[in-house]
């Protein structure tokens, strides 16, 4: 199916794989800057959701976070490393959901690389706080919803389509396979 609305004259679905998928994940993740970090997604328990700031996204889509070793999130990951991350970059576009696996370390070099002074709010001893850990999430697959030409063009097409009584949707969506 090429469109959610058969009157749509443009292709609005594009499934991405490999580096193209990683680039889309990085683009949308960096726009959003924060996500809902979901754990317990495969345990049969009620899944847990919490907002998290993404510290860095590698070119291959790997996402990095800082977290307390004694947090519920870290405990959940130790029990089941499968996670789902949900991003929303703006009100009407830049949506991303992906599934991946998380690992936890206390790699001092990575902590130093990701460190920002504001983290002293949670880690009072700074970069050397014994409670600080790094969470690495390696994406496997996901789904995205975006605009083809940016929000200004998307809005203009929506207005024109409404005036003409036609579907001129500038959105694009598809699967991500990494």
* CATH homologous group name: Electron Transport, Fmn-binding Protein, Chain A
Do you know the CATH topology? Pnp Oxidase, Chain A
Number of domains: 1
Spatial shape:
globular
Largest sheet: 9 strands, mixed
CATH class: Mainly Beta
Structural class per helix/strand content? alpha+beta
Ends apart, CA distance between termini: 22 Å
CATH architecture field: Roll
Helix and strand string, N-terminal first? EHEEEEHEEHEHE
Mean pLDDT: 87
How large is the radius of gyration? 19 Å
Question: What is the helix fraction of residues, given as a range?
Answer: 10-25%
Strand content: 35-45%
Count the strands? Answer: 9
Count of helices?
4
Low-confidence stretches: 152-166
Overview of this protein structure:
The structure is a single chain. This protein is an alpha+beta fold and 178 residues long. The chain has a single domain, classed as Electron Transport, Fmn-binding Protein, Chain A (Pnp Oxidase, Chain A). The chain is built from 4 helices and 9 strands; from the N terminus they run βαββββαββαβαβ. Strands 1, 2, 3, 4, 5, 6, 7, 8 and 9 form a 9-stranded mixed beta sheet that branches. It is globular, with a radius of gyration of 19 Å.
